């Protein structure tokens, strides 16, 4: 089993603990945290996602974040 996340309902109430890949595969709601990094001039950081990750490997992204682990 991979990374565990809390599956939530539409009101963000925890309804179970599931594997993150399973949550993504089934389209189940689960918590994530993201942020946008900007410098004093307002420029947004754009980074390239690692090649070894399961979601959009090698793509450019302007969000920094990830899944929220169980109990986090």
Automatic annotation (TrEMBL):
<protein>
    <submittedName>
        <fullName>NTP pyrophosphohydrolase</fullName>
    </submittedName>
</protein>
<dbReference type="InterPro" id="IPR015797">
    <property type="entry name" value="NUDIX_hydrolase-like_dom_sf"/>
</dbReference>
<dbReference type="GO" id="GO:0016787">
    <property type="term" value="F:hydrolase activity"/>
</dbReference>
<keyword id="KW-0378">Hydrolase</keyword>
């Amino acid at each position: 089993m991979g990374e565990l996340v809390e599956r939530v309902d539409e009101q963000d109430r925890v309804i179970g603990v599931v594997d993150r890949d399973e949550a993504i595969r089934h389209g189940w709601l689960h918590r994530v945290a993201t942020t946008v990094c900007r410098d004093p001039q307002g420029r947004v950081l754009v980074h390239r996602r690692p090649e070894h990750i399961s979601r959009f490997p090698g793509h450019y992204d302007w969000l920094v974040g990830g899944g929220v682990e169980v109990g986090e």
